[in-house]
Amino acid sequence: MPRLERVAGAETSAAEVSDILNRDGAVVVEGALGSDMLRALNADLDRFVDDIGVGMRYPTTDFYVDFYGTKTVRFDGLPAKSPAFLDVMQLPLLQNIADILLKPNCEDYLLNTAQLIEIRPGETAQLIHRDEDAWSYIPRTKPQPQLQIEAMFALSDFTKASGATWVAPGSHLWDSDREPARQEIVQAEMPAGSALFYLGSTLHGGGANTTEDVHRRGMFLGYVVGWLRAEENMFLTVPMEAAKTMPVRVQELLGYKPHAFIGVVDVSSPMMLLQ
Ligand SMILES: O=C(O)CCC(=O)C(=O)O
Ligand SMILES: [Fe+2]
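That is the input. Now the predicted structure with 2-oxoglutaric acid docked in place:
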């Protein structure tokens, strides 16, 4: 079995977690969310899950329908849906890891994904993939600058049967066309409140939910170097009126801070629109 290292969130520094990410491409951070925060997130998100329901609402290709799942509830724009999510975005451990791994390649990073992924009974395993292949036009060279770091927070227990994320430790160093053998992937089993941190270059995928009645609720938060277009369109999912009331660091991560020449309004900082 490949080794997926586990660390205690409260006792492990960002430098240590970053070292493990550089070595293995993935790590489970136990107790990443306190019990109060976990409760608050679930309460915020409960208000949306059943109304939105499973599957894609505006599918563009059959591939995406399959990739995103037909028995999975998935929606993004969490900064506007959950006040508690704003605290998760600013967790010191997450920010400090992003500082260490992404800042060498950018002035600052952006929120790339802020997504609820609830895998329901009968869902099949997702295709194993690298999230950074969203930017497939960037040539893959080795060593490659870090583009993206991500955290899959377990908001319910992640078990083998409920669809815990599959991950291939070490695969961030593989050639881009190498596929993992069965014995090279492992499921990130973890209790609610823990998180799987991984790199955009690490192979992974959602698991199958073989239970009768268990909902695997994950919250997927990622950062990307600030000069790439983020996957989710935060300007549309988080209305500007709502952004005006958010902490400055959240506003920056949503894209109101320009990256030198990129993302400007009247060749200036979009922050002025929030004043
Ligand atoms: O749900 C999961 O465990 C992983 C989801 C994922 O990797 C994705 O949608 O890109
Ligand atoms: Fe993914």
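The chain has a mean pLDDT of 96.
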